[in-house]
Amino acid sequence: RIYPRWKYDTSCVSDHNEPWLSPEMTLISDVWACQLRGTPRRARGYNCCVTMTVVTAEMVRSVQLFAQLPSDLIEALRAIAVPVERPGKATLFVEGDPAAGVYVTLAGRIKINRIARNGREQVVTVIAPGQYFNLVPVFDGGPCPANAETLDDAQLLLFPTADLHMLIQRYPGL
User: Fold this and answer.
1) Which residues in the chain belong to E strands, given as ranges?
2) Is 159 strand, coil or helix?
3) pLDDT tens, 91-146?
4) Which DSSP state fits 69?
5) What DSSP assignment string belongs to 103-134?
6) Is 102 left (phi over 0), alpha (psi -120 to 50) or beta?
């Protein structure tokens, strides 16, 4: 399945006052969006962001976790989805980071690993397209329990923690 290509928009240099950027998403913009282009982070703002032509209901429904949900819930999830594109060998998050949200892989593979005390990497799993990850820390409030790194160029959807919590309050069946 081929998804629309995403474009980089480096014109959105600001101090978190973009209308689409909620305060809960500042970590996303600071860390992940800027790492996409390899640009340095500014202390209070971000240097770049990622936009996508459209996040479709089909993309959301393609995830097994969401496949059986009614159309109104799919639309609500589509509305909060944040597209993320990362090159191969890029870090999404590190063990101990606050959980930005639940990730869904649309294309590419994601390696979930931990580093042992002796410095050796322990691969926990490899996430394939259509699978989701980072669900538990979003709902238990804890930090990310492992590292996540792209193995290939990856296209993902991120469902931010705060937005998911609001949706669950609005739609308890979710």
Assistant:
1) 6-9, 49-52, 82-86, 91-93, 101-107, 110-115, 121-127, 132-133, 147-150, 154-160
2) strand
3) 999 999 999 999 999 999 999 999 999 999 999 999 999 999 999 999 999 999 99
4) S
5) EEEEES-EEEEEE-TTS-EEEEEEEPTT-EE-
6) beta
